[in-house]
Amino acid sequence: MTTTPQAVRRQSPPTAPAFPRSGPAAPMLPSPEPVRLLDEAGNRLPSDYPEPPAETLRELYRRMVVGRRFDLQSTALTKQGRLAVYPSARGQEACQIAGVMAVRPTDWVFPTYRESMALVARGIDPVEALTLLRGDWHCGYDPAARRTAPQCTPLATQTVHAAGLAYGEAYQGRDTVALVFIGDGATSEGDFHEGVNFAAVFRAPVVFFIQNNRYAISVPLSRQTAAPSLAYKGIGYGVASEQVDGNDPVAVLAVLTRAVEQARAGNGPFLVEAHTYRVEPHTNADDASRYRSMDEVEAWLGRDPIARLEAYLRGAGRLDDDAVEAVRTEAEAYADDLRARMSAEPVVDPLSLFDHVYATPTPQLLEQREQVRAELAAEGGEA
Amino acid sequence: MATVTMAKALNAALRDALATDERVVVFGEDVGRLGGVFRITDGLQTEFGEQRCFDTPLAEAGIVGFAVGMAMSGLRPVVEMQFDAFAYPAFEQITSHVAKLRNRTRGGLSAPIVIRVPYAGGIGGVEHHCDSSEAYYVHTPGLKVVTPATVEDAYALLRAAIADPDPVVFLEPKKLYFASAEAALPVTAPGFGRAVVRRPGRDATLVTYGASVPVALEAAEAGRDEGWDLEVVDLRTLVPFDDETVTASVRRTGRCVVVQEASGFAGVGAEIAARVQERCFHSLHAPVLRVAGLDIPYPPPKLEHVHLPGVDRILDAVARLQWDDQPDPKWVAA
């Protein structure tokens, strides 16, 4: 017996989407060139994106200067043996700071290990932000209170968490947006694709913010993708995307602000690629001279995002010598305070190792806890 | 009392959890309209709506990672992995995030997620559908690992898993899905970390779990003809592990055989054998023996009976428990 088309249609689930699912794909594509609002000298360029308010840009500048000083101090602390390791974000200040300024304190941020600067810009105490890298514990801040996930070291796994968090918040009637930081290398991981796809299918309010800093440790972008831009990875999942000059702080904030608005308005996730550069080695333990030239680094140092924003704000009459000096003084004081507080060696109680494996320790963990307690008591007795 | 299959008991547990706790959401592959390939979620989407029970993209890491985020938002996700071996793509999410979230954040966040995994063989499944994957999970601190062997435990342990503040890998023995028993649901049972003596006996203890429990009980019955009075301990939860019940049983009987379907090398049975010997050495009349699946990739359906521990293999092991106080000839020969 042949099946009539009508019968097929009746049997189709009522929720089956029509084909094609939505309108033309073009609005999902990023701009052909990265969005810029400032040129490298800090001159204003025409753009469809509205410029953030002047007060916001002054605050962006302030946090970038403090953020860079924090980053330099952290690298110094590593050389002094105060931190086990430090992955610097120097040169990526525009992305680090605009990323957290684009969202509300009630939104959620999902950082990676390179986002220490973003964490302190979000208001997290720098000592708590560096707990992971000092080796006192894994996550030093209260993620629920800070609406900030623990820094993610496995690559791209946090993208799926962001999708689930954003969906769960919307499911419970809250207008929370999740902004997830990810690097260029991590876009090759399967979890990145699953996270973007889940967010798209469930229309979860997520902004996927890719800082393309050109290197995954030593491996250049050309080994991660053959796509014209990482921002093109959105369209295959039905996700609107944009690319931006990641060293143009005004553009990064303008693009992310729109992406967050789109997500919060219920238009589904948004993907942003920021073109930037990792000025420092992967971490202090890396030797970048094995895989890239100093000429390349020097060229990128010439595209300094802080100098660019400072030049623009000065030119626009929004920043003068006094204001610049005040921010520098604040940054130095911030670094002094961090240095002083990091010189104290915190006492970490070995017995706390057993506290949060489960909500209630198993009998086996209690046995091991008692064993360690006895070992410590014996050591104490010898002293 | 009514006759209930394990599949129906699991279904009832999910239904009752959805009805009593609005934070509970059930999702995975084919769990919505279809009701799951084993029908464990049958009717839940119709009864509770697409918000509470829904299908996802076909991506296991995505499913588990999505559950982590949902748990961070305050929900209680219950996810289904369609088959044991299809859970492997989610392994990183399970071991690096689900298991560690509470610990990494010193209790600031937790992942009260239930990951349901139909597992083990005996159903004539083709490759990648019959793995006993429990050792991977029990080796990961932070996870609780549960496997029911009875209809009542299927209901009670799944309800307990959903209510538990910690993540639970809930291993459902596929072979027992359609085994039935008299049960009046809802039913309560001993909680996590409590093993149960399914059959008391004086001569030796068979320690087992999941799909191997009915096999061990059958072996114990058959052992009567050989003159052995065998005790059967059903572990129920592999993590937390009930040393107390196992130890008390073996100290009483003085002999122990551990039975598992999974391959033996570095498996759960090896851990149990070590624990029993540490705790019961002076009560033992013979070495603790293991009866396990062979150390081979899971065989094709026509040969799975060779791989799976059966009554004869269990009784052969019991026979080697040095009843005449002579060394085990198997090792003497070696």
TrEMBL record, chain A:
- Which UniProt keyword terms apply here? Oxidoreductase, Pyruvate, Thiamine pyrophosphate
Which Gene Ontology BP terms does the record give? branched-chain amino acid catabolic process
| Keyword Phosphoprotein annotated | no
| Species of origin | Planosporangium flavigriseum
Q: Which PANTHER family match?
A: 2-OXOISOVALERATE DEHYDROGENASE SUBUNIT ALPHA, MITOCHONDRIAL (PTHR43380:SF1)
InterPro entries cross-referenced by the UniProt entry? Alpha-ketoacid_DH_E1_comp, DH_E1, PdhA/BkdA, THDP-binding
Kindly list the GO molecular function terms attached to this UniProt entry. magnesium ion binding; oxidoreductase activity, acting on the aldehyde or oxo group of donors, disulfide as acceptor
Region called Disordered, residue ranges: 1-53
* Source domain of life: Bacteria
Name of this protein: Pyruvate dehydrogenase E1 component subunit alpha
Q: Which NCBIfam families does the record cross-reference, listed alphabetically?
A: PDH_E1_alph_x
Name the CDD domains on file: TPP_E1_PDC_ADC_BCADC (cd02000)
Q: Cofactor(s) for this protein?
A: thiamine diphosphate
Determine if Oxidoreductase is one of this entry's keywords. yes
| Domain spans labelled Dehydrogenase E1 component | 62-346
From TrEMBL, chain B:
Whether Cell inner membrane counts among this entry's keywords is: no
Keyword vocabulary terms for this entry: Oxidoreductase, Pyruvate
Identification of the protein by name: 3-methyl-2-oxobutanoate dehydrogenase (2-methylpropanoyl-transferring)
InterPro entries found in the cross-reference section: THDP-binding (IPR029061), Transketo_C/PFOR_II (IPR009014), Transketolase-like_Pyr-bd (IPR005475), Transketolase_C (IPR033248)
GO biological processes: branched-chain amino acid catabolic process; response to nutrient
What EC number(s) would the UniProt record show? Answer: 1.2.4.4
Classification via SMART domains: Transket_pyr
Q: Does the keyword Oxidoreductase apply?
A: yes
Any Pfam family hit: Transketolase_C
Specify the species.
Answer: Planosporangium flavigriseum
The coenzyme or cofactor needed here is: thiamine diphosphate
